[in-house]
Amino acid sequence: MSTSQHPLHAQGVRALTAALKNRQVSATELARHFLDRAQAHPELGAFLAIDEAVTLAQAQAADARLATGSAAPLEGLPLAHKDIFVTKDFPSTAASKMLAGYRSPFDATVVQKLAEAGAVTLGKLSCDEFAMGSGNENTAVPAVGGTTARPVRNPWHLEHVPGGSSGGSAAAIAAGLVPAATGTDTGGSIRQPAAFCGITGIKPTYGRASRYGMIAFASSLDQAGPMARSAEDCALLLSAMAGPDGKHDSTSLDVPAEDFSRNLNDALDGLRIGIPKEFFGEGLADDVRAAIDAALREYEKLGARLVPISLPRTELSIPVYYIIAPAEASSNLSRFDGVKFGFRAKNYGDLNDMYVQTRSQGFGDEVKRRIMVGTYVLSHGYYDAYYLKALKIRRLIAGDFQNAFKECDVIAGPVAPTVAWRIGEKSQDPLANYLADIFTLPASLAGLPGLSLPAGFGAGGLPVGLQLIGNYLQEARLLNAAHRFQLATDFHLQRPAGF
Description:
InterPro entries: Amidase (IPR000120), Amidase_CS (IPR020556), Amidase_dom (IPR023631), AS_sf (IPR036928), GatA (IPR004412). GO terms for molecular function: ATP binding; glutaminyl-tRNA synthase (glutamine-hydrolyzing) activity; transferase activity. Residues 29-479 form the Amidase domain. By secondary structure, the protein is an alpha/beta fold. The chain is built from 15 helices and 11 strands. It has helices spanning 13-21, 27-40, 52-67, 109-116, 167-174, 191-197, 231-241, 286-301, 317-332, 351-362, 365-378, 383-404, 430-435, 441-446, 475-488; strands at residues 47-49, 78-82, 120-125, 180-185, 200-203, 223-228, 272-276, 305-309, 410-414, 450-457, 463-469. Helix 2 packs antiparallel against helix 3 (52-67) and helix 5 runs parallel beside helix 6 (191-197). The longest helix has 22 residues, at 383-404. The radius of gyration is 21 Å and the shape is globular. The chain starts with 12 loop residues before the first helix and ends in an 11-residue tail after the last helix.
């Protein structure tokens, strides 16, 4: 079945929504096609939950609305949600044993907004447990088609990681199991897996999309965003996802929703692209550097001007992030105690022992590591020395960006120092995983919007992502810059063999 010479799973959001509105394909046919695709590729481990009855019922309701001329922008479009968003109709586990089988009584605001825009939910996608990880190897819930928990695999090379923590979303899109998905980005968890899997993903300005119903990791950093094949598709999704939610989320920005696709085709003549010298120093792999340099030359052909800039505190972003994020995680995850909901240990003595046994058995190693680090830096005698100092440096990092934006409109560089590594290669070295976030953490700490787009291929034919960072509320500018690049190149159209 296809709407053109391309199969349905090779088409993006724009093409599929047009086909639905033109009645070239029904929402039910489309949902059935992607459900079959998802269930045909259990080797990826991308899906944690599928419920055909729920999905097909949503698709049939979308078909009924389409028959009456529905104007909803995403009517009938199938997509899937990272299992960090709570959903009424599917389990919400955060890929953790602590929440295995948990059913939420409500939908996250982002889920609700996409449903109101007409989207049909295919299921829930794997992630690192409680969104803590850089490779989607920290998953404690079995994927659909399996009986034991296992890492998600990169469809470009099944022995390599897809990136994390939104690796299930990135892998599913790259393999054509879904046309689009939601992700979350705390320190790079949309941008890095998008880069590793050769798709497009954007982390909007902190507060652009509601955090209500997003299972919290680090509240001052967590942000929802869309992942899809192209910048155009991400713009359509973000337009539906974003908007104020003051009733439920005190950190939600009181900024009206907007059409992020409005400036997609604007010319890039005169666009000043800042190139931070700190993003191109020691540690950046030669194959990644070559792809990024070629992409920047393409931008010059499109009329942009490259401007050298400095972000002098880039190297401090890792220690700052890995103090602030674990501190917030230790507080947020204190609610998982075996009393109110979720997993509870079967054998224990008194109440304190129940807490100890439940949390020891329910949390994975990486989650426990971050809880312990966070509790330590918040403890008496260390709060000022570590946590308070990290907050001060975070403000300085944000100031570095504002100084840079006096000289440029957009900042560009690599998303990660290398292409995707082999599964298990860094599992015994947490610091090596943390260092992979060096280029994504600064924008997260500053609360700035950041985007990853496919920019070529490196060692082993694995994708390389180009990162674009904008000033606050400049998502439309980033999407315009990415879209114009994608009109001139075809990296985002390349597909992994066998999918």
